[in-house]
Amino acid sequence: PHSFHRKGKTPRRPPLKKTSHTQKDPVGVYCRIRPLGATDEECCIEMISSTTIQLHAPDGIKANRNGEYKEVPLFEDVAKPLVDDLIHCKNGLLFTYGVTGSGKTFTMTGSPGEGGLLPRSLDMLFNSIGPLQAKRFVFRTDDKNGMEIQGQVDALLERQKRESNQQSTVPKTPSSKQKPDPEFADMISPEEACKCEGVDEDSCYSVFVSYIEIYNNYIYDLLEDTPIDPIRPKPPQSKILREDQNHNMYVSGCTEVEVKSTVEAFEVFWRGQKKRRIADTQLNRESSRSHSVFIVKLAQAPLDADGDHILQDKNQVTVSQLCLVDLAGSERTSRTKAEGSLPPGNINQSLMTLRTCIEVLRENQMCGTNRMVPYRDSKVTHLFKNYFDGEGKVRMVVCVNPKADDYEETMLVMRFAELTQEVEVARPVDRPICSLAAGRRHRNQAFRDELSRRQEERPGGSNNTEDGSVLNQLLDSLPALPACELVDPTDEQILPRLIEVLERRHRIRQMITEQYTRTANTLKSMLQEFDGHLMKDKIMFNQKNEMDRLEKKSKMLEYKIDILQKTTNIYEGDKRSLQQELESREQRLQRELSERKRMEARMQGMVSDTKHQWEKECERRVNAKQLEMQNKLWVKDEKLKQLKAIVSESNNNKPQRNSREKDQPRGDVFRTRGGGQAVQFTDIETLRQECPTVSSRKRRSSGDGPGQHDGNKMDWNDRENRVSCPHYCPSLIHFGWSKTAIRFCHDTCS
Asked: Where is the composition biased (Basic and acidic residues) (predicted)?
């Protein structure tokens, strides 16, 4: 028996909550455990309580857990709140997650006699809005994720056109008057049927369903009817994701079928289910190798003020949707061993992207970071990004298989579930309510019933009114017609009697006609009075609504005025503080400027004083240096005079040269950098003195004693002195200067 409906929520660790003005709800995570196939099969899951599940190693407990715990209806806790939100204009997302063979598809669809989440959700929806549905094609999709409204006549023409056009690309909607399939009819027993409370009876509803699959990161429409070409078959065309004017993601060009009953909707689902991609894997004989998304879209619009027709205003149409997602198996590729052209790598990649998005959302909420969530890395996450951004509630059903062989995969699934329930999603905002008076449909129906009752009243019945009694009396007073058989043409009794009866009947008929006219006028006046009362009631309701609206507007304006007043006070305080700060800064700036000017004047005085002192000091040093140089120059002049006298004396002792050689200048005299004078000779004579005898030369070269050859002693000393002289003095020896003159020249040059 399929008795394994169990709910178990993984214990949630208290996160580090941040202060936020937006109300948030955690992602609801529920666990469903599939029963073991054999009684002696090893089990790795133990259910501790309704919120705690314990996993054991494969060598742990060996026991079958079938029927050991009380069955908990999964639909009541998971899907029923989402259907209730769907009827109240809120979106919802429900997806199943788990390894292959854990019961994901069974949880979603169920079996004959025991319906899953999808048929139960559809049954609850149509039980709630069944008598409030609009006629077909009154609501029409605009191919931009929105809805349009058309009149009854246009809807009838379009319905006839769709029925006559057999080549239409839109699948023909199954008629709700057909006999339902017993397999579908037995999905939900009448005892398990439920409905939503608090449905707005002043609105009309219409349900549209679509069915897509995401395979190999491509989106395909499972309800699209493509012409079959047996010679050259064409692959199905993939769809693309787009963003509507409200920044919600939708599948562009997806087929949306209008349905009017649960059986109709489930037949459409089953027609698309046959096109899903399945394959034989090692874990499951018929494994779903794609992510399927069944979208239930509910369009609703309010009735007009008379409560008779739908309000022809597109802005008043609200569209909500519930997405039921059956994800592919989350097991590792090595364990699948799928046959055929299967892309398990892409399946795992899309589920890994889902896990990454959940981790980033959790990190941003708990750590206060602002990392970008990679929704666009996968079509699955990109399609449902609005739900995680606060466009509806999110519920996840984790399906696990307690077999010991799936222990590692089950551990990964439970870790992902534990991670997911720590993510919080912003609570959706309530839609605005129509401003028309409530109870319009009920009043319109009551008026129609009253009018029908009055029209059904006929004269001659048991009527207590005065007009009814008069009409009955007149009808009873009609005389019967006498026998009209004439035997004799001269008979003067039958004809006058017949004429008299006919005249009486004619008069009574005229009275009946007058009475009928008076009764009709009375009824007309009553109807007019009733219409007047209805008009007054309508005017009163409108005035009351207008007063409520004006009161709300007044309160809103007062609230805005208070906010503006508070804002103005805050701005005034900021303005005063800024002005004070500006004035203080200006005063500080003035003080700094005056201080800078005083500092500049002080520095200029110090610079001028220092400059005057240095000028005096420089002048004193220059005068002292000039005096020193003058003294040195005088000393050097005296030395030059002495040198000149010595040179003149030495020249007088030499033989006379010819006048040409005497007049020719031998050198130049110029001033040195130290303030003295120097002599530069331009004519150099090389003088050689030869010894009289070779022996004397040899003796000199062999280094005889200083007592020998005294006559040449002076010459060698002269050579030594000549070598030791500075740059300009060696030439003096050629003129026959004495040793004393050469030494004096050396002192002068140095």
From this structure: 446-459, 658-671
